[in-house]
Here is the input.
Amino acid sequence: MRYFSIEEADRMVPYLQRTFEGIRTRAAEIARLGHLLRKQGDRSRPFAPIPDDLAEGHRLLRVSRDRQVGKIQEALETLGEVGIHVKRGDGMVDFLSKRGDRQVLLCWQFGEPGIAHWHEIGDGMDGRQLISRPEAFEPHYLN
Here is the structure.
């Protein structure tokens, strides 16, 4: 388990911005492909088996949609692997941190220029508070 300092979380913001820009672009493409599939009467879910007798154009739409969904899943998994907790796929994340002797969450949402808020673990976005003393959030590493 890892605790982030504000500085460490802040260094991730450009990466988060690029990642969620990509996710949003892919989500828009998934919506477009879904619309085209529905026009053909296809209400299949991503990664559903594709029938062998499906017309080539229809098959390509499903393969394309599944590829886009897979890329989003990969991006979200990568964030999780480095200790970032994704709260919403459109760009809301938390970083586990310590404030004194308490576990808290530093939070960021898409479009914010840096880490400027935190909240208690059980509070969520409604409990966001402005960071007034950055030095209170120190990095800690656990084995």
In short: The mean pLDDT is 93. The beta strands are 2-3, 84-88, 92-99, 102-109, 117-120, 129-130, 137-138, 140-141. Helices lie at 6-39, 56-81.
